[in-house]
Specification:
The chain has about 375 residues and is α/β, with parallel strands linked by helices. The protein contains 17 helices and 11 strands. The structure holds NADPH dihydro-nicotinamide-adenine-dinucleotide phosphate, 1-deoxy-D-xylulose-5-phosphate and manganese (II) ion. Catalyzes the NADPH-dependent rearrangement and reduction of 1-deoxy-D-xylulose-5-phosphate (DXP) to 2-C-methyl-D-erythritol 4-phosphate (MEP).
């Protein structure tokens, strides 16, 4: 029997991270936790360290309790990159949110380590650097985002030359049926009430603005090496069809399942095998009854258009956009700006930004920092 796959979970206290620990715990013969990294939730991380006894731990905020738990099992790392390249790790799951996963992803890929990537902002900011690191190190990227896991599965056994179009499905988020007038007055609590998925706060707001889908179009370009013109978005309220691929001969393949991230997480770990048991309830299509599809409305949800435009421009534009979005979402959650200000802030930043083609890491980080500074300074137009 093979020894268990040793997994480093970056972002272990978050929504994806906690579900990953669930999956790992279900199959102790197959998977083991080798390392954990998190941000500010030192209490939960301390509990995870005490229960799972990883050999490497990183935290942005270290509490005395975490220090004690980490000292009992190994050393506290100074940086998340150190966890990503620690010895005795077979795969790194990058489940941090926002820009935090960029450096650990590059570090792991540069030493040829497989990376299961949930943190889509990493690919949006610097897809070309991720690809370069993967090619230089001989590493491998396995998609975790549900749509990209679906596309990945549709492409198994297919030639990449046979792809005509990638079709990403979008639930439409919390405000899919709201008018523009109604959108002006929505609250963070309403935005955080996603109709089909339970996720972290930032991605849930991104889903409500359709920025999540916009970022996913750029993520698809890098993961599957297709131009933006070969990526489409279709609204699908039920989140049962996770995405589709249209091939050159007109055939269309889709992957379906109940909306539950434990399947894509499990598959990214078990690949190229499928596990013998599902981690979630099975899909009963007769009980679902009807599936709906439609076109996204770019007037009500301009973030999708902004992201696709940034993806087409390339260079530092997507990094500036992602940074502006991160700041705008935080400001909305703090009630400093209204929901309709989120695309305004991003558009303002992109108008000021002069994109550099093929940027170095330093240039990406500079574009990120400048976009954050600009986004923090945009005054709200809609009263928060
Ligand atoms: N949730 C979902 O269902 C899906 C998520 N994704 C993507 O996966 C990523 C994670 O999403 P989600 O789990 O929802 O987000 P959460 O906000 O729930 O979790 C984010 C995690 O990142 C950790 N973190 C923050 N900063 C650092 C840092 N500097 N170093 C290490 N860890 C850090 C947080 O730690 P702490 O809590 O301790 O501060 C937390 O564990 C995002 O990019 C999202 O777009 C993609 C598809 C589905
Ligand atoms: C679960 C997952 O992959 C999320 O990215 C999800 O897609 C969000 O739903 P939306 O379709 O509303 O963006
Ligand atoms: Mn997704």
């Amino acid at each position: 029997m093979k020894p268990p796959l040793r997994v480093a979970v970056l972002g272990s206290t978050g929504s994806i991270g906690r579900q990953a620990l669930d999956v790992i715990a279900r199959f102790p013969d197959r998977f083991a936790v080798a390392a954990l990294a998190a941000g500010a939730n030192a209490d939960l991380l301390a509990e995870q360290v005490a229960a799972l006894r990883p050999r490497y731990v990183f935290a942005e905020r270290v509490s005395p309790r975490l220090q004690e738990a980490a000292a009992a099992v190994g050393a506290l790392a100074e940086r998340p990159e150190a966890v990503a390249v620690a010895p005795d790790v077979d795969i790194v799951l990058v489940a941090t949110a926002g820009a935090a996963g960029l450096l650990p992803t590059l570090a792991a890929l540069r030493i040829g380590r497989p990376v299961a990537i949930a943190n889509k902002e990493v690919l949006v900011m610097a897809g070309h650097l991720v690809r370069e690191a993967m090619q230089a190190g001989g590493g491998e990227l396995r998609p975790v985002d549900s749509e990209h896991s679906a596309i990945w599965q549709c492409l198994w056994g297919e030639s990449p030359h046979a792809i005509r179009r990638i079709i990403l499905t979008a639930s439409g988020g919390a405000f899919r049926d709201f008018s523009r007038g109604q959108l002006a007055a929505v609250t963070p609590e309403q935005a955080l009430d996603h109709p089909t998925w339970k996720m972290g706060r930032k991605i849930t707001v991104d889903s409500a603005t359709l920025m999540n889908k916009g970022m996913e179009t750029i993520e698809a370009m890098w993961l599957f090496d297709v131009p933006m013109d070969a990526v489409d978005v279709v609204l699908h309220r039920e989140s049962i069809v996770h995405s589709l691929v249209e091939f050159t001969d007109g055939s269309v393949k889709a992957q379906l399942g109940v909306p539950d991230m434990r399947l894509p997480i499990q598959l990214a770990l078990s690949y190229p095998e499928r596990m013998p048991e599902p981690p979630m309830p099975l899909l009963d299509l007769a009980a679902v009854g009807v599936l709906h599809f439609g076109r996204p409305d770019l007037d009500r949800f301009p973030c999708l258009r902004l992201a696709m435009e940034a993806g087409r421009i390339g260079g530092t534009a997507p990094a500036a956009m992602a940074a502006a979005d991160e700041v705008a979402v935080e400001r909305f959650l703090r009630r400093e700006i209204g929901f309709l200000d989120i695309p305004r802030v991003i558009e303002h930043v992109l108008e000021q930004h002069e994109p550099l083609p093929s940027p170095s890491l330093d240039e990406v980080l500079a574009a990120d920092a400048e976009a954050r500074r600009l986004a923090a300074a945009v005054a709200p137009e809609v009263p928060a």
